Amino acid sequence: MNRRARRRQGENTRSVRLPPVTAPRPGPLGLPVWRSSAWSFAGTAEQAEAFGEKGPGAVENPTVAAFAAAVASLEGAAAPEDVAGQAFASGMAAVSTVLMTFLGAGTHVVAPAPLYGGTYSLITNVLSRFGVSADFVDYADLHRVQEAVRPSTKIIYAETLSNPTMVVADIRSLYRIARAAGALLVVDSTFATPVVCRPLEHGADLVVHAATTYLGGHDDCAGGVVVGRPGLVARLREVAADVGGELSPDDAFLLRRGLETLPLRVRRMCATAMVFAAAVAKHPAVRRVHYPGLPGHSGHELGRHLFDSGPEGTRYGACVTVIPHGGYDAGVRLVDALRLVSVAATAGGTRTKATHAASTGPRQLGDGSSGVDAAAVRFSIGLEDAEDLIADVTAALDSLPGSRV
Ligand SMILES: Cc1ncc(COP(=O)(O)O)c(C=O)c1O
């Protein structure tokens, strides 16, 4: 035995050089949380192979990678092997990395109006400073999308279900416009989830989620994810390594656990949203309800073709926007009169939430130019019993001055 092996190491060395952990057999059924932020290699050859040409991003945390792979398999159900995923610390980290990967100085993006306020602000306040130009158009009129396309257009950006008017994106037509333009079709599908719609199956190149909302689903973690063809995701991963925004393993664990109940939650929320929207639309204090499940909504027919259905009918998402008579004040009064429903600007989660769009400002509920009604109140439907939600909102509507109109 050589001298180095015989020598007894000091207590500090022994306390940080504890016996290595090996993978247990039988293997765990639940996802282990690998909290390690550093990875050791057998030697420089293995390290060089793992890192390739890029830096630290080359080593993926297995818990984080497991979450991204799970979303990729849900979004790419028709061809799981052709879909890869990359996880991020938030929805906006996912959105910004996609845009920074495929846009650059002198390029152009076409985006919808209304658009999630954070994405709108990113494009107009940040990317504009780096030479990216944009047009925001009403996607209900596809001619306007076509007209907005320029030779420099690299991305056509869409939201499967927009917020708060719940416009349904015509993903198949947008795909044709994007292909003809040589641009990528990027779809933020946060409000749909793969339980309602899988945009990759309709021609989208990349799908983005603010996992904070429905995928995690319990209001206790934050994250984002992008899925699409492995070649595109590999390019994104390189930029992600440069700009940061990595998801934490603890949040990855919660997000992946949320996926196990995603279909149960979302199916039930969509069914409740349908009943809720139909009941609220009949109230005399209500001027309008935006919910694509209602036959009068502009996205109703499109949704029937794009969205999944089950015994409960087509799933039209779980957000319902209610516009009471009486303008801004009526929206405020409606929210303040709710007793069961929580006042919160985020969507998803098990508890129903309401938010008055005009009070929360443009960030949560679309850009100011999109004509969001001053009275609009968005309900993100949760898992409570439909009758209790309807009773709460009916009582709140009854208290409005316009309730006996
Ligand atoms: C449609 C949409 N995209 C992106 C985001 C941004 O997600 P995050 O808040 O996790 O950054 C949100 C947040 O609610 C959203 O609703």
Automatic annotation (TrEMBL):
Keyword set includes rRNA-binding: no
Cellular component annotations (GO), alphabetically ordered: cytoplasm
EC number(s) on file: 4.4.1.2
Domain of life: Bacteria
Pfam families: Cys_Met_Meta_PP (PF01053)
Molecular function GO terms recorded: cystathionine gamma-lyase activity; homocysteine desulfhydrase activity; methionine gamma-lyase activity; pyridoxal phosphate binding
Start and end residues of each stretch annotated as Disordered: 1-29
InterPro entries, sorted: Cys/Met-Metab_PyrdxlP-dep_enz (IPR000277), PyrdxlP-dep_Trfase (IPR015424), PyrdxlP-dep_Trfase_major (IPR015421), PyrdxlP-dep_Trfase_small (IPR015422)
CC cofactor: pyridoxal 5'-phosphate
Keyword Transcription on entry: no
Family classification: Belongs to the trans-sulfuration enzymes family.
Protein name as catalogued: homocysteine desulfhydrase
